[in-house]
Amino acid sequence: MLLEFLAAIVLGVAAAGVVMAINVAIGRRLPGWLVPAAAGLSMIAFMVWMEYTWLPRTMASLPEGVEVVSVSRESSWYRPWTYFRPLSLRAVTLDTRRNRTHPAQPGQVMTSVVLLGRWMPPRQIPVVFDCQANRRADLHADVELDADGYLSGADWRELPPDDPALAIACRSVR
Prior knowledge:
By secondary structure, the protein is of the alpha+beta class. The chain is built from three helices and eight strands. The chain folds into two domains: about 1-60, no CATH class; about 65-170, Lipocalin, CATH 2.40.128. The protein has helices at about 1-25, 35-60, 165-170, and strands at about 65-75, 85-100, 105-115, 120-130, 135-140, 145, 150, 155-160.
C-alpha cells in the first residue's frame, strides 16, 4: 500500500512536470490550474487503475492448482465510479495442490481454502469436503481425525450440490 501511494505521488509529479514543460514550450498560454489538475487527475486515475487491475494481476500470479471459487463485487459511495463497474476486492480460492484423502474415507477431501483480499495477506483455512453428503467442515483445534478417517468435533455445514468449492475439491474424487 505504501509503494502504491509513493508511485501515485511520483506519477502526479511527473504529470505536473509534463504539463509545465508543455506550457513553457508553447509560451505559457495554459491556465495556471492545469498543472495541479493534471497531477491530481493522474494520481486518481492511477489508483483507480490499480484497484481494478488488482484481481486480474493477483489471479495471474496464482500457482497452478489454485482455483478461484468466488469473487466479491462491491460499490461504495466514496468511489462513485464503482456504481458503473463494481470493484473486486476479495476472492476465495481453493488450493487443490493440497488435496488429501484418507483410504478409509475416499469420499472426503482435505484441502485449503485461501482467502485473498486487497491490502491483506492471504489467509489459508484447512477444510474437509464430504463429496457424497455435500457438506464441509473447517479444521480447527477442536477437530480430531481418528484412525478410521472420521472427524470428531467437526462442525459440518451443508452445501448445495452445485457449490463451486465442492465441485472443485471433489473433482479428483468423483
